[in-house]
C-alpha cells in the first residue's frame, strides 16, 4: 500500500515544476516576495533558506559535486514546492481531508523501511527530490495528503480519469488562491499547475500528468 502511495505522488509529481533563476528582488507590488498565494506572501528569504538547507546537505555528501551540479535550479524547485504545497492544502481543505502527525510518521517509517534504513532514505530524498533531512516530514505529509484527496474525490490515481479528477481539484484550488508570482520568477499557470517550463529532476522518465493533457519530458 505504501508503495502505491509513493507511485501516486510520482504520477502527479509532474505538476511540481518551476521557472527562471530566483533573484533576491521582489516585485514592486510585493517587495521581497517571491510569490503571493491566497493573500499570503512567500518571501524570497524563505525560498533561499530552504535551498540553502539542501545545498548544505549536498555538500556534506560523498557525491557532493554530482548533487550540486544536477541541482542548479534548486531555488526554482523550492519556490514551486512552496506554491504547490499551499495549493494541495487548499484542495485538501475543500475536500474535507486532514492529515495527522501519526499518518506522517507511519508514511516516513514505511518509506524508510523500503530504502533499507535512515541514512539510505535521507540520501535518496536528497538525490532524487532535493529534500534536506529537516524537510522530509513536509514531503511525507504530501505523500499522505494526495492519496487521501483522491479517495475523498472518489478518484483512482492509478487511472487517467482519476488523475484528471485530482488535477481538476488542484486547478480549482490554484485559481481560488489567486497566485501572484514575482515577474522575475515567471508566471503561474493554473491549468498546467506550472511555474514557467522547468521540470523537477525526479519527474524524468516517470508518468507525466497535467489536468488537460500529458506533458512532454
Counting DSSP H or I runs of 4 or more residues, the number of helices is: 8
Structural class: mainly alpha
Mean pLDDT: 80
| Strand tally | 7
The coarse overall form would be globular
Write out the strand line-up for the largest beta sheet, numbering strands in chain order: 3-2-4
Highlighted features:
disordered N terminus, 8 helices, 3-stranded antiparallel sheet, disordered C terminus, 9% strand, single chain, 217 residues, mainly alpha
Task: Indicate the topology.
Blueprint: H1 2-12, E1 17-18, E2 33-37, E3 40-43, H2 44-59, H3 64-69, H4 74-94, H5 101-115, H6 118-129, H7 136-152, H8 160-176, E4 180-181, E5 188-189, E6 194-195, E7 198-199
Antiparallel strand pairs: 1-7, 2-3, 2-4, 5-6
Q: How would you concisely characterize the structure shown here?
A:
This protein has 217 residues and is mainly α. It has helices spanning 2-12, 44-59, 64-69, 74-94, 101-115, 118-129, 136-152, 160-176, and strands at 17-18, 33-37, 40-43, 180-181, 188-189, 194-195, 198-199.
Task: Note down, in words, how this protein is organized.
Helix content is about 55%, strand content about 10%. With about 220 residues, the chain is mainly alpha-helical. Strand 5 and strand 6 (about 195) form a beta hairpin. The two termini are about 30 Å apart.
